[in-house]
Known about the structure:
Two copies of one chain form a homodimer. By secondary structure, the first copy, chain A, is α/β, with parallel strands linked by helices. Helices cover 37% and strands 20% of the residues of chain A.
Amino acid sequence: xxxxxxxxxxxxxxxxxxxxxxxxxxxxxxxxxxLLNLMSSPGSGKxxxxxxxxxxxxxKVRVAVMEADIDSDVDARKIKDATGVESIQLHTGGxxxxxxxxxxxxxxxxxxxxxxxxxLENVGNLVCPAExxxxxxxxxxxxxxxxxxxxxxxxxLMFSICDVVVINKMDVAxxxxxxxxKCKEYIRMRNPEAKVIPICAxxxxxxxxxxxxxxxxVAAWKVSE
Amino acid sequence: xxxxxxxxxxxxxxxxxxxxxxxxxxxxxxxxxxLLNLMSSPGSGKxxxxxxxxxxxxxKVRVAVMEADIDSDVDARKIKDATGVESIQLHTGGxxxxxxxxxxxxxxxxxxxxxxxxxLENVGNLVCPAExxxxxxxxxxxxxxxxxxxxxxxxxLMFSICDVVVINKMDVAxxxxxxxxKCKEYIRMRNPEAKVIPICAxxxxxxxxxxxxxxxxVAAWKVSE
Lengths: 225, 225
């Protein structure tokens, strides 16, 4: 086969994830590395969105990707092939989320000297990943139109912890009963500060707004105390 | 408000879920009650599929519904209003799955004397619910076209434990790169015995095949030893 790195993630031994996540965030800050935690349901278009985003940012920032999945390695391979960006696959072996220690196991397999930004694509799941701080600087999520505009009502924690909600598959909105204004209102109920960015990853429409948000966040964080 | 029953589910105290699930299955068998565990991702159309199915079976079998959700009660209300079928809401309080003891807490709030079939709509999640036997006689899942045909590769356990895979939103297949034959092949890799039923819950197309499968399973199980 080829040289794709596939890391089998081990269960964490630390009981206090919150402390561990804060420590990891501090370590990454000292190294000048911004970690983005990207979450969503299965099939919302995380990987396609990521490929589009990487194409827009890879000349401007040194970026690497960690793809978490229960079993397969299709996503890391797809990203590496499509963008040339360093991508490794994290196998969770059935575990439904990543915590800070599991994230660290992935980071240990990246060349951090050459990296400003690491994007972690978390396990496809709107429940468990929301409960575990990965040590990321920012949390982003993708909600896709076919999932429905009522998801912020049903998965409150996920929406409340995300700094940005990308709404994908806007091109098929006419075929679904998806009300963008209603969805924004529900998101605001959970999280008045969250930025909402409608996109269509398939065509690339709107992705530049997400890419710009990410570049701005990385730049602001680099100069922060 | 109205009389919708909302049950706050407590964390299980039993360590051995497998034994507990087998006990629950036996108790339900003694009472002549068939439990179906219905799982899927968020937004795959579980509730709409259920409403269509209930309309087709409610005159033929005495059925009740338990809607598990982290927080809201929109689904149980929707089902009760649309079909008149007894529906209760189970709040998991952030928990990402139901085990047998949690299922039992829901069953205790139904009028089981008047019921042949209980359908449990599990939490929207392709990971954790697959790991916990609820005590059900059969497991069903819904995969929707927009989620992609590769999901059996990424969520192997879920597909391997399901007796039937309903593929919903077939009406939008032309707008997505969804290959039904490829999807069936991936499902067979995980579970050669699984029945695959393509439907469109929005229009009702194909739902009668799922309803018939369910009626046949209930009838066969009633006369089984």
